[in-house]
Amino acid sequence: MQWVVATAAFLASAVEFVEAFTIVLVVGVTVNWRSALLGALAAAATLALLVATLGVAIVQWVPIDALRLVIGILLLLFGLKWLKNAILRYSGLKARHDEEAIYEQNRAELRARGAVDASSSRFDLFGFLLSYKSVLLEGLEVAFIVITFGVSAATSTVSRSSGIASAALGALAAGLLVILVGAFVRIPLAKVPENTLKFVVGIMLTTFGTFWLGEAFGVEWPLADVFLLILAAIYLGAAFLLVVWLKRVKKQQRAQAIENQSAPTTVQTQEVNP
Amino acid sequence: MKIIKAIYNFIVGDMVILIGVALAVTILALINSVGALAPLKGFSGPFLIIAVLASLVATLSREAFSFPR
């Protein structure tokens, strides 16, 4: 057992596991746990298949930047849509459950076309895909960490397989720790109002989407993965400013509407009582 | 056609966001592939964040001002 390799792999993998688990957690709380866990399990199975067939060659054969690009774009599209609707709801420009009605309509359309299995009423394609692609991407990054750390630790006295085994144990410990912490966080999260959760999900998906899309184009974010927190803070601040601005817009629109309504009434009153 | 519309609605459902993200990706791809634009590579990160925020502001403005509520 090489403790230096195991510790390095533990720390690096913990960051990736936290990123993957965060998305599974929010999908579980906002969509449903069945879809979130099915997505995560399907991703784990895909990952196991990839690692089993490609082995160490996975580092050469899997185009991680292309995956980051596709997943980054999809997360940005999903995230911006959720964030937009959450901001509109907070500012009062949109009814609280409008989006759900539209979403249900879309699901019904997809189901009618056979894109969603109608027999499994609790399965949610959106939640499944979101969970699947996030776990797959982060899982691949963990696999890359384990292989690169393990291989680079190999010396004349330590074999390559021993290095990889140590790194894999470190990553496994990180994964178990993140799942354990997540299980405790799950219960208090379920008590948070639905709209607040959707707002947070929008911020997080946009944050991850921006981060991965940037990485796909070779952007080296300052402070590496810690920049995710800064990015989330930027989007959170911007979202609050937008809510304040839209509340003002709504107030002005309401005042304008009241003025427009009262103006003809005054003219009519003057005509009746000159 | 209906299936394409359903998939579009499922994934994004907002033309402004789609155009904003597509534009940002195209510009980033150009910065990365065109040699003359290589000095701009260092600004890719801030540009992406600004493009995302601009897309958000544009789609919210459209919602707020396009039709009376």
From the structure above, extract its key features.
heterodimer, A: 274 residues, mainly alpha, 9 helices, 82% helix, B: 69 residues, 3 helices
Summary?
The complex is a heterodimer of chains A (274) and B (69). Chain A is mainly alpha-helical and 274 residues long.
Description:
The complex is a heterodimer of chains A (274) and B (69). Chain A is built from nine helices and no strands. Chain A has helices at residues 3-30, 33-54, 58-61, 64-91, 98-112, 125-153, 160-190, 194-216, 227-272. Chain B is mostly helical and 69 residues long. The two termini of chain B are 31 Å apart. The interface between A and B is large, with 42 and 37 residues.
Q: How big a fraction of the residues of chain B is strand? A: under 5%
Large-scale geometry of chain A: elongated
Q: Low-confidence parts of chain B, pLDDT < 50 over ≥5 residues?
A: none
Determine the oligomeric state from the structure: heterodimer
Order of helices and strands of chain B: HHH
The radius of gyration computed from the alpha-carbon positions of chain B, rounded to a whole number of angstroms, is 15 Å
Report mean pLDDT of chain A, rounded to a whole number.
77
Regions of chain A with pLDDT < 50 over 5+ consecutive residues? 115-121
Structural class of chain A: mainly alpha
What fraction of the residues of chain A are assigned to beta strands by DSSP?
under 5%
Largest sheet of chain B: none
Break the fold down into its secondary structure elements and pairings.
The complex is a heterodimer of chains A (274) and B (69).
Chain A: H1 3-30, H2 33-54, H3 58-61, H4 64-91, H5 98-112, H6 125-153, H7 160-190, H8 194-216, H9 227-272
Helix pairs in contact in A: 1-2, 1-6, 1-7, 1-8, 2-6, 4-6, 4-8, 4-9, 6-7, 8-9
Chain B: H1 2-11, H2 15-33, H3 44-65
Helix pairs in contact in B: 2-3
